[in-house]
Structures are given as structure tokens and as C-alpha cells.
Amino acid sequence: MRNKYSWMLLGLAVIVTGFLVGKHYYTKAYAQREIDAFVSEQGVPSKAIYDEKMVWDWQKSGDYIKRFKVRGDSADIVYEYLFIAGTGDVLFMPYSSTSAEPDVKYPPEKTEDDFNLYYGEAYEDGGSSLYVYHLKLFTGVESGLDGGKYVLHKSSDIFDSDGKKIDVDEIKKGDKLKIYFSDEVAIKETYPAQIDGEYIFKVVRE
Q1: Which pLDDT tens digit goes with each residue over 77-130?
Q2: CB of 166 closer than 8 Å to CB of 203
Q3: CB count, 10 Å around CB of 113?
Q4: How far apart are CA 49 and CA 12, in angstroms?
Q5: Considering the entire predicted model, what is its pTM?
Q6: Distances (CA, A) of 4 to 11, 17, 159
């Protein structure tokens, strides 16, 4: 009887071990695909990548980590990507032995989450610029904008509520707008105040 239970326990241990090993390799392959997709969207050419390594931080975080260097960047800069196993997110965390904040040649593409979202309203029809007021911070960090009138010198990256690109002259007086501003916004103290397009990620007509 004892031998029977020993064999049962051994069989169970083999099954559990096989499951865990299989899960690890499946997750690692998935992490590899997700990181590679992130790198591709970032615009890093595959032929420029060297010293590539993929590791699993099994002792601490349980995350999968990919590291490599890029031709054209300083040799001390390492591109590091973390695949967070719990959430499926990919984080880009470059590091360097000579700089706390390395200036990489291929920074990741900016998204809405990198900007401060304001709600506003057009007070005139759009022409070559946008005319907005009633700005109110919705998410992000306060950028020093108040409820006054502004001329936004932005003629591209303007969308309707369905995500379709529209021209600036399609914005009409009274349209409700979502505007994504960078953290540091330079305001020209005229009347109305003016903001250059470089400080605006995109505008969405609701």
C-alpha cells in the first residue's frame, strides 16, 4: 500500500512539475512576442540590435526581462524591457553607467497617457488655428492653464469622436473638445494667449 501511495505522489509531482514548466515556457514565449511588438512600434531596427538577452527574474519579481544594445547609441546604454507577468504590460527602462536618464536614439512612441487631458470648448470656428476657452483639467498634472481664451496653433492630429482625422477648419464654434497638453506648456501672453502645436499631442472633437 505504501508503494502505491509513493507512486501516486511521484506521479502527481511529475504532473505538477510538467504543468509549471509548460506554463513558464508558454509565458516566456508570450512575453517575447509582446516585447518584440513593443520594440517594433518603438522603431528600433532589428539589424541595429546586438548583445541581446532574455531572462526570467524568478527569484524576485517573476517578470521577464529583455536587454540589448543598439548600434548608433552610446555603447554604455542598455535598452531594457520588463514584461510584467501579472498585468501583461511592457515597460521600457533604459539604463546607462554614465547617465541617470539616458537619451536613447529610439524613445518609445508617446501615447495619451503621457499627456495632461483638458476639456474645453471652441469659441470661434477653426481656421488655421483652434480657438478655445473654458479649459478644465480632467487627468494629469496642472499645466498652468486657466479658463481664459487661447489660440492653439495646431493644424494636425485633430480627430472626431470616432478617431477619424479631421481638418482644423471642421471645428466649429461651440464644439466640445478634448485636448492633450504636455506637462510644460509655453504660453505667449497675448490676448488671446497663444500656444504652439509642439505642446499639444492631439485634439479630439467630442
Answers
A1: 999 999 987 788 899 999 998 988 898 999 988 889 889 999 999 999 988 999
A2: no
A3: 9
A4: 43
A5: 0.63
A6: 11, 20, 69
H-helix segments, the chain: 2-42
Query: How far apart are the C-alpha atoms of 155 and 147, rounded to whole Å?
Result: 22
HSE at residue 49, side-chain half, CA atoms within 13 A, is: 16
> 154-192: string of b/e by CB count within 10 Å (b at 16+)?
beeebeeeeeeeeebeebeeebebbbbbbeebebeeeeb
Strand partners, 103: none
**Cβ-based burial of 35 (10 A; exposed 0-12, middle 13-18, buried ≥19):** buried
Task: In whole angstroms, give the CA distance from residue 128 to residue 124.
Answer: 12
Phi, psi of 13 (to 5 degrees): -65, -40
Rounded to whole angstroms, the Cα distance separating 163 from 174 reads 20
